[in-house]
Task: inverse folding
């Protein structure tokens, strides 16, 4: 156990250290990330909200520096009312940077028009999954759009403050009997704050689990704050073990919400820790 913990810590520190050495940081971090990638089939991504204070070019550069190439794109980088030309420009910028946009969101859906806009937007981008939050009275309508467009909807839980979907079970109970394209994005930090143990939620709701937002929190309570992965209360070896047990094939997108005006050091540490757990648990 001690050697495994040391390996994980050294991995996190290695990734963090690489970003502060511009001359060789990119090569070092890419080499380390490539080594870790071969140790696990579970993909690591970044949830776009992590870059709320940065433009797209800056965000893509940060992703390259920490060796992550899967992105859930937030609409402040590509507004939903964008023209096809604007959409193509952003999607090509991601592609040219070696970044795959695998999902869009989180997108809030408070009207039928908002649902229509979200699915049309996804179709224009060519992305086949929306991470969204539809009001209860729009779930059936959203299901119709899932069937119409062939685009999956992963409903996101937002913790104790959320009147709609505080915990994963609040999502699952409303979609468990709907079309197979209706699923969940479990935010494990908000799950923990809502009293739902993430590793158990992953196992319990595996049939509808499309996506994960990965973060750590300081305490398992409403007042819990975002913190670097590995420094908080979530048991990441257990989370990874559950993902392996259910043979999860989606993306684990790290959502870093601490120090959002200077996220790169903490984001690198979080990516390093999580990849270290993936490698240690193989």
Result:
């Amino acid at each position: 156990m001690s050697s495994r913990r040391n390996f994980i810590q050294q991995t996190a520190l290695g990734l963090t250290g690489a970003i502060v050495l511009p001359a060789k940081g990119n090569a070092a971090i890419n080499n380390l990330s490539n080594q870790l990638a071969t140790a696990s089939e579970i993909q690591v991504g970044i949830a776009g909200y992590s870059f709320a204070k940065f433009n797209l070019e800056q965000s893509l550069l940060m992703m390259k520096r920490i060796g992550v190439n899967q992105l859930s794109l937030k609409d402040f980088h590509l507004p939903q009312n964008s023209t096809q030309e604007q959409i193509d420009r952003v999607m090509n910028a991601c592609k040219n940077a070696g970044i795959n946009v695998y999902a869009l969101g989180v997108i809030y859906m408070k009207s039928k028009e908002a649902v229509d806009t979200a699915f049309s937007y996804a179709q224009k981008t060519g992305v086949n999954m929306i991470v969204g939050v539809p009001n209860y009275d729009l779930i059936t309508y959203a299901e119709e759009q899932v069937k119409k467009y062939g685009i999956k909807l992963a409903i996101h839980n937002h913790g104790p403050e959320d009147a709609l979907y505080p915990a994963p079970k609040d999502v699952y109970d409303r979609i468990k009997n709907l079309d197979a394209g209706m699923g969940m994005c479990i935010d494990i930090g908000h799950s923990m704050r809502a009293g739902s143990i993430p590793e158990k939620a992953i196992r319990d709701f595996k049939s509808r689990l499309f996506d994960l937002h990965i973060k750590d929190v300081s305490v398992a309570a409403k007042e819990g704050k975002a913190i670097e992965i590995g420094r908080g209360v979530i048991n990441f070896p257990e989370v990874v073990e559950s993902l392996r047990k259910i043979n999860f094939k989606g993306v684990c997108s790290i959502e870093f919400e601490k120090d959002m005006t200077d996220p790169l050091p903490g984001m690198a540490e979080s990516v390093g820790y999580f990849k270290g757990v993936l490698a240690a648990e193989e």
